[in-house]
Design goal:
Elements lengths: L1 H21 L3 E6 L7 E2 L6 E2 L1 H13 L3 E6 L4 H7 L4 E2 L7 H4 L2 E3 L4 E10 L15 E5 L3 H9 L4 E5 L2 H9 L5 E5 H9 L6 E13 L2 E3 L4 H15 L1 H10 L5
Parallel strand pairs: 1-4, 1-5, 8-9, 8-10
Antiparallel strand pairs: 2-3, 6-12, 7-10, 7-11
Amino acid sequence: MKRILSLFLAAALLVSFAGAASAKKLIVATDTNFPPFEFKDPASGKHTGFDVELWDAIAKKIGAEYDLQPMDFNGIIPGLQSGQIDVGIAGMTIKPERAKVVDFSDPYYNAGLLILVKSDNKDIMDVKSLAGKVVSTKLGTTSEDFVKKEAGAKDVKLFPNNDAMFMELLSGGADAVVFDSPVVSDFMRTAGKGQVKVVGPLYQGQSYGIAFPKGSGLKAKADAALKALKDSGAYRTLYIKWFGTEPK
């Protein structure tokens, strides 16, 4: 009888531990400063943006509790690989080399790269015009890869955040910024209004995805939730709120 009771108690403890593990809060990493996808609201001091609100809607759909962990973009994939992070949503382009080490959700945003220069610049008109120029962009991004491969720039200045990248242009330390279209457009409408302009076409059409550790069961749940949000119109409402246009 004692043996049966001991086995019963052990089984009960295992169930209890499994329940506690399944109920643990997810650690969701996002970039510290990537408006309008994620940024700190100066009024409330809280992080908000399209990515933040989209993940919150997905989490509610799948019944997951989570803690938001703002961090430098370059730390997100290593954090997923090491198991310290459960989810990464940070305007992350679905790139083949990234897909080798993390799993991506279905695409949730279609973007591309734009060239931004000062409003009085008459020398730069497209990527070929960047030859011999100084270009600033964000470290560890698709933009860095593109500039180094296609621009023929004299110098490529890499920064860990958007503010520094744009400030380098405004201060005269760079001739142009090359970066993701929604972020460039947002800066041109807000902090850089009247001081900067976009030149050339949209380069390298690309899609953003939510990243998970390899083999994570959260991917399938997030994909189903994302589809449900699109079908219900909730995704469209969120998109228009943050970008002012219909989803593309």
